[in-house]
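hey team, just a heads up i'm posting the complex here instead of the shared drive bc the drive is being weird again. everything in one block, sequence lines first with there labels, then the predicted structure for the whole assembly after. its two chains so it's a bit long, scroll down
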Amino acid sequence: MAGVRLQNVSKVFKNTAAVKDVNLDIVDGEFLVLLGPSGCGKTTTLRIVAGLEKPTTGSVYIGDTLVDDVLPKDRDIAMVFQSYALYPHMTVHDNLAFPLKMRKYPKQQIEAQVTKTAETLEMSNLLQRRPKELSGGQRQRVALGRAIVRDPKVFLMDEPLSNLDAKLRVQTRVELKNLQKRLGTTTIYVTHDQAEAMTLADRVALMRNGMIQQVGSPTEVYAHPVNKFVAGFLGSPTMNFMDGTIRSSDDGAVFDAGEFSFQVHPNVARVLPAGGSKKATYGIRAEDIEVENGVREGSVEVKVFGSELMGSEQFVHGTRGSMDVVARAPMVFQAPIGSSVWMNLTSPNAHLFDAENEQALA
Amino acid sequence: MSRSKTMRSVQSIAGTVLKHAFLIVMSIISIYPVLWVITLALSPGESLVTPTFVLGFIPVPATPTLAHFIAIPKLHLLAGATFPVWAKNSIIITTSSVALSVALTLPAGYAFSRKRFRGQQASMFSFLLPSMFPGVITIIPQFLLFSTLGLVDTYFGCIIPYAVGSLSLSVFIMKGAFDSIPRDLDEAAALDGAGEMRTFYKILLPLTLPSIATVALWAFMGSWLDWALANVMLKDNTLWTLPLALYDFIQPNFTYYGSFAALSIIMAVPVFIVFMIFQRYLVTGLTAGSVKG
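-- predicted structure starts here --
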């Protein structure tokens, strides 16, 4: 077991910088998820840790060892690929035994560890099959098995669940989390799926354009995003953003979005000195908006243009002038298309972002 | 049944009949000469005999005999050279050139698929270039070069050109085969503890067996059946290969048709066996890499 440290790591491909000055300290036994949209550099970062890519600048440490010049095979890490990368000509047994054979484990130990891994992942009955005779979920299990069979220092996982159907993905997610906690192995997990990140991670590192935007626990990055990108990337539906001006006075703060204005909760407005005024983006999540059918003091009138029923709740989509806004409402809430509803945008959980650099105002 | 439906079924039956008729005609055109050769080989004497015709056109020997086949192992047309010697020469030259061809093709295909190096495009083109010219035009320069090197009238005089001659197609078949294997497998093997050589032998080679079979078969055909190059390189009749011996049955004033036919059939047997063994690999090998998945 060991932690992983990335120090000022950058990677440039020809003229494109894929990873820019990444610093990460992953503690021993931690489950860290690298999250971000495609092309943000998360997979490249993972491959740098694996030793499959050499960083242009910067260093990687596994435990206390600098591994910049250590070959992938000598880093004592295991990786689960998005494609699973199972050896098609070998049985499940041989796929699992391969990393042990390569490391010249004694035959008896190989058998013991393969059997144990197969039992852990409940696939003892699959050992004599070849990958093409397995379902997607079973293949995924074998790929995971090949990673855990030799008890490496670090697991690296590159979107390992993305080829599974939705139901199996959720189920495997839970199993994966339990397995990692049981084994206590440091894990770096790459995904673009925020739900996966939120459920699996001890900490999430959000990346964009090769740079880490924020590192923190799932709750922390969700509740306290450091910038508009993080705020918008996490959460479904996406956070509502409104551009305008915030004006603070002794009576409280008001956000003026041009066509309408509303009170800003003191919790949110405290970032601005009394009497101040600033161009800003107001961000509020659908679940923080109260929506009602009748006129209410301080609420904003919004025309409904659609609603999505999610089961016990629904998302009401409305528009006011040039602004679209989505709010969460109970399943029974009546919001026919074309009708007016009143949304209360004043919430202690809202966020303010600088209009220029999009950083959270704090 | 509606009229248009009837029309369509008539059209489809007519189409099937036409297709089969065409295939039958083409099969007869291909097989007919072979039937003649078999008939000649099984007929007594060395001249072109008049066979019996079954159904008016299928030749069968009037008085069938295995005399030619029995005589072939003892064949002794010229001093010092006999059938066993020629067969041995053919086997040595063919197996060596197949082995050399595969040995050269695998690393070349691997390098073109997995490595990036300066001059890659140019060197790939240099492999392709010779296949744009008919092979016979290189025989004279090859002869001059090989006689300088003292390789004329040696096995190597044939083994090297046969092996190298098959490379232009083989290297591309192998490159395609390696290309079709996802790099994730190389990387997974690297992380599992395998070095590049072990990844090559344990992962890539087993997965490209169909293509290797195709490459071997291609090299085998090129050397087992070649006459033109052997005729130039091998003057000493104790070094002759089977095609040269076969050609010797055609003398200026007499052709030994019966022996010629029998030896042709004997020579075709290994080709037939090799094809039967490898045929299921052949199509996969040739199309490997063209389609993903």
